Amino acid sequence: MLVGEAFTGEGGDTAHINVLAGPRSGPLGTAFAGALANPKPGIVPFLAVLQPNIPVVPATLIVNKAAIETDRHGTLTWGAMQAGVAEGVRDALDEGALDGRNLEEWVLIVALWNSPAASDEEAIYQNNRAAMREALLRADGKLPYAGNYRDRAITARNPFFRLSQ
Fold this sequence. Notes:
The protein is α+β, with helices and mostly antiparallel strands. The chain has helices spanning 27-37, 71-94, 121-139; strands at 2-8, 15-23, 46-47, 49-51, 54-55, 59-64, 106-113, 157-158, 161-162.
């Protein structure tokens, strides 16, 4: 199983993606089917498509990390965010991610954060496309992370937490 992460953008239109990639015949395939079959209130896993009736290969399951509570957030999730993920998968594959693997036999699970305050459809699309591309390339070892977690010069911080010095 491959694991990758990427965060792109600023403000309410940021995209944070965690991706798992692996054979559908293993534990990831079981998790994929279980997640798809068991939606929760506000968390509705769905397949990424380039267009209706044109799914991404490998099969890609998007699981939203922010509960959908408004029509606008739902439209952005199933629209711009989902389209960005679909294009990002294709971009990563074009750049060599998962080379040599039978893509029909693999699945991706994408845990996707987009704020309920998101508003700029184009920024949301671009940020999700970039984050998906980076996360999948990182998962496959084709793109480095910004630093090494063992480097003590790098302190714990993120858009929701800044450690005061």
